[in-house]
Design a protein that fits this description.
By secondary structure, the chain is mostly helical. Helix content is 66%, strand content 3%.
């Protein structure tokens, strides 16, 4: 199953700050959990009673703690601002279609704990794999790398619609290397995560479109694959063209003309349902869609060919 997706930004950056039993910022500070104090790399035990031994030392300690709180807050704000800046750069490069620069930017942060960075890195890795100049060996590494980043993004934020979407997309891509059995087994997981993505963000036309592709794919599954699926699974994945059509229309209602391929698939699904009139309507829209990408050009060509056949 080959899936293509476009998507914008979602959940704001959130840092998971933890260091075992200590939370430390900068060169000095106290642990929010265990109460230890670190100053220029030296750890000492925090003893609240010790501060009561002298008013002068207590005042200094209090001022030091107040300073730590201010510095700690400033550091977090600065880190948040930095990540927001990176996300803005990444989104600009993505919209500009500068895949290689985007990948180079985001791979600098591949050890990040931030879900927003990680799902964007998964997307960029997948886009790199799709480039014509990418060798088969490189493509495989990028595809599996994309899955790893998407999985980490999901682990960091289960409430991220984008993380669920890209995890499903990347599992689908990996299926091309793991055979028909794995591909069919993964179909259940893919569907589950697309459904979660839609539930978390019902206004994301792309997730709805991809759920439509899932339905379309299993509606037109060749007979020999159906036979294998029945042999391997008690209840193999299945769908209908009517279900696929429902998702494609829903995506169009959420964001009209958002994607040339959604128009094309509306036309193709109506053809499968033997409704030539409505098929021609949507295929004509796909053919006339302004071509901004290579995929748009391919859609125009396929739509024109199908219209000729009508």
């Amino acid at each position: 199953m080959v899936l293509a997706a476009r998507l914008g930004r979602s959940v704001p950056w959130r840092r998971a700050a933890a260091c075992g039993s200590r939370l430390l910022t900068g060169t000095s500070g106290s642990c929010a959990r265990c109460g230890r104090w670190r100053a220029r790399g030296v750890e000492v035990e925090w003893n609240p009673g010790f501060l009561k031994r002298g008013p002068f030392f207590s005042v200094l300690s209090y001022l030091g703690f107040e300073t730590y709180q201010v510095l700690s807050h400033t550091a977090v704000v600065h880190a948040t601002a930095k990540v927001e800046e990176i996300l803005e750069q990444a989104d600009y490069l993505y919209e500009s279609g500068d895949t290689e620069k985007l990948y180079q930017l985001l791979t600098q942060y591949k050890e990040s704990e931030d879900a927003e960075l990680l799902w964007r890195l998964a997307r960029a890795s997948r886009d790199m794999a799709q480039l014509s100049g990418t060798s088969e060996e490189e493509k495989k590494l990028l595809v599996y790398g994309a899955l790893e980043y998407a999985q980490r993004a999901l682990e960091k934020n289960q409430s991220s619609s984008a993380a669920h979407k890209w995890y499903a997309i990347c599992i689908s891509d990996v299926g091309d290397y793991e055979g028909i059995k794995a591909k069919i087994a993964n179909a259940y997981i893919i569907k589950e995560h697309f459904e979660k993505a839609i539930a978390l963000n019902p206004k994301d036309a792309t997730s709805i479109h991809l759920m439509g592709i899932w339905c379309y794919t299993f509606a037109e599954m060749p007979w020999y694959q159906r036979r294998i699926a029945k042999m391997l699974f008690a209840t193999p994945p299945s769908s209908t063209y009517e279900e696929a059509l429902g998702y494609f229309h829903r995506a169009e209602q959420v964001d009209p003309n958002f994607y040339s391929k959604n128009l094309l698939l509306l036309g193709k699904t109506y053809l499968k349902l033997h409704n030539r009139k409505l098929a021609a309507l949507w295929l004509l829209k796909a053919k006339d869609y302004p071509a901004h990408t290579e995929e748009d050009k391919q859609v125009q060509t396929e739509a024109a060919q199908l219209l000729t056949g009508l």
